Amino acid sequence: MAETLTLTPAAAKRIAWIAQRQEKPAILRLSVEGGGCSGFQYKFDLGAPAADDAVSETDGVRLVVDPVSLDLVTGSTVDFVESLGGAAFRVENPNAAAGCGCGSSFGI
């Protein structure tokens, strides 16, 4: 899955920090759900991969995506961005035809 999804080093570092604080493995699950301002929204959780998940690894941190969500986020980059407005995980999704101002939902 290395070519289909990318986890930036900044995101991997933040996930490792969160996982250590919560005493969980450094595995970020990205999924897509219906909703949000533009039709779909991203959901992030810490959790173990399922047998049919796609898995990508950066600096020892794994990014897992279920097969249904993978169709909507193939080619995406997951980054962690800090700014004056706050800090958040951000998905740069080349499949998204529309987005919203909050950056957490998208349309195809």
What report would you give on this structure?
By secondary structure, this protein is α+β, with helices and mostly antiparallel strands. The protein has a single domain, classed as Hypothetical Protein Aq_1857, Chain: A (Sandwich), CATH 2.60.300. The protein is 19% helix and 44% strand. The chain is built from two helices and nine strands. It has a six-stranded mixed beta sheet with strand order 4-5-2-3-9-8. A three-stranded mixed beta sheet has the order 1-6-7. The protein is globular. The two termini are 21 Å apart.
Topology:
Layout: E1 5-7, H1 9-22, E2 27-34, E3 40-46, E4 54-58, E5 61-65, H2 67-73, E6 76-83, E7 86-92, E8 98-99, E9 105-107
How would you summarize what this structure contains?
With 108 residues, this protein is of the alpha+beta class. Helix content is 19%, strand content 44%. It has a single domain, classed as Hypothetical Protein Aq_1857, Chain: A, CATH 2.60.300.12.
Inertia-based shape = globular
Low-confidence stretches: none
Q: Tell me what the CATH architecture is.
A: Sandwich
Query: What gyration radius follows from the Cα positions, in whole Å?
Result: 13 Å
Largest β sheet strand count, sense and barrel closure: 6 strands, mixed
Tell me how many strands there are: 9
